[in-house]
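Appendix B. Raw example, untouched.
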Amino acid sequence: MLRDRGDLLSEAFCTEMMRYVGFDERDRAALRRFAPLVLPYRQAIAETFYARLQEHAAARLVFSGPEQVERLKGTLQAWLSELVEGPWDDAYLARRARIGRVHVRVGLEQRYMFGAMNVIRLELLAIMRAAVPVAEHAPIATALHKVLDLELAIMLETYREAFVERVQALERQHTHLLEHRLVQSEERYGQIVEASEALIVTMDAELRLVLVNGHAEQALELRRDAVAGRSFLELFVPHDLHGPAALLVDALLEGRRPGPLEVVTPTGGHRRVRWHFTTLPDAIGRLVCAIGLDITEEREATERASRAERLASLGTMAAGLAHEIRNPLNAAHLQLTLLERRLKRAAGPDLPGALGAASVVGGEMRRLAELVEEFLQFARPQPLRIASLDLRRCAEQVVALISPEAAASCKQLSLAPGKPVLARLEEERIKQVIHNLVRNAVEAVPVGGQVRVRVEAEPGWGRLEVEDDGPGLPSHDAPIFEPFFTTKPGGTGLGLAIVSRIVGDHGGEVGVDSRPGRTIFRVRLPAS
């Protein structure tokens, strides 16, 4: 049992665990002899420990940022000192219990405790084998195993404590009727519901969730214990469709559904779900069962196929049109140049006006020529010449090229420092991608705004991010990668379409997260 007050675990638990692992005065003495050899390696062990945790996405989520990690490294070094120096008294056990409760509070999953303790164990044993005479290995290794097992037992006891408290809280919040319905539903439909590939959600008459199946958990990135008792409207229905709960449910049950509903997951993802509602018989009231079909991938596949078909048609048309326009455009530009020369040789009061008009026509012809060139780039992509190159170096060159223009507009453009990131790419094509994204961002931000470029490595990929604090996209589902869609006055709508095509040809991915005041374009390219 755990005490209701204070930080100490019960004396019975501590005494039992000390006795169970056999941690005695000989072990304490062995650890004190070993302590001076460990202390110089504390920082290296801390670096290894947190580097291992950073390899796992679920473990990374518990950290608020690099500053917190650095603080925790210092805490771990102090923990290592106390581990081998002692004293192993009640105060020691109380501090260990507090550390365990911190892990519970920040959400570090319990399974990582075993792996983390194993990392510490292996590092300490390696130091022992390297620095301690063989004759001393046995007592020191035994003492290390015992004290680390004691540490692990304390940590796990804090998880058990938290679990007990959570269960007790749920028991206080939920009525006996809800528990009865939950048990009855799980017994009756558990195997069928869990085996189904549909998203199945069961609610009471007030739309409070009673049951969520595993596929709904996975697709919508939810945890059952985190959504039990919460409103279906809050989790699955956009705010503009909420309305009175009873009216919405009645409408859905009668088949008057507003098409697929969009669900925003906790990580910011968007899923489209087509729901079907029905009622289930119940001894006391009615239960509402919502069965959802996740059509996100199906819709995206359809959109990709449709986009590819449109791109092929537009590409053929654009190539022919650009070819037909280019030759007469060049001839017209040549004749305009000759006309300007003749006008300059002529004299008369209308000469400045004629030259001004010719200059305007020339400018428009140059803009048209640039548009034709964009058409050709979009319509006739050339075979790639892939090589292993530094993605960061490409970004540096583009940022250096656009920085003077940004500074002249009183806007800040920066590239976050970092190491080289090798990726499989064609340099000029990827520079074009970066150039289009950075220039769009610079044009989007107001005076005094910031554009930040980041290049980082992740397993299997090189990632480029272009972030700006502009007004954002008109909506998250705006077809920004479609040809000729643009939000800029005078824009061609081909810049992001070219970005999408080039990244796709490289076997990469491009996406965007946008809200007012913050838009991030992310490009992922296969790592070298």
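End of appendix B.
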